[in-house]
Amino acid sequence: VCDTGDQQTTAAVFVKESAATIVETLKDVTSCEGEDAVFECRLSQETAQDAQWFLGDVPLQSNEMNEIRVEGTRHTLILRKVTLEDCGPISFKVGQHTSVA
Fold it and tell me: InterPro entries, from UniProt (predicted)?
């Protein structure tokens, strides 16, 4: 705001969050049936952008079978007590970036 007494003008500043990139990609995991499988990915920055985990084409959410954690720039997926049906590609997507294992 600029106010001269009898005149006033206002403006606004808009800041766009810069896009996060994946700096530590996913690594393949081999687990025995009944064990947990842990996948980690690290981003270039903490971000408010939507990050999503997938098993094949199915988006994953935190529940009793999957635990999704975010600690700073580190994103972790834990598949609890995996079965043979859990075999397949795991992917992590943020913005336009994807990592697959």
Answer: Ig-like_dom_sf, Ig-like_fold, Ig_I-set, Obscurin/Obscurin-like_Reg
> How far apart are the C-alpha atoms of 93 and 1, rounded to whole Å?
40
Each residue of 6-44: pLDDT tens digit? Answer: 888 999 888 777 788 899 999 999 999 999 999 999 999
Distances, alpha carbon 25 to alpha carbons 5, 33, 56, in Å: 57, 24, 17
Residue 2 three-state SS: strand
In one-letter notation, the amino acid at residue 53 is W
Distance CA 88, CA 14 (A): 42
Per-domain residue ranges of the chain:
23-100
Q: Are 24 and 44 in contact (CB under 8 A)?
A: no
At the second CATH level, the architecture of 23-100 is: Sandwich (2.60)
Token couple for 40: 């980690």
Q: Which two tokens stand for residue 8?
A: 């006033």
Kindly report, residue by residue over 75-85, the tens digit of the pLDDT: 999 999 999 98
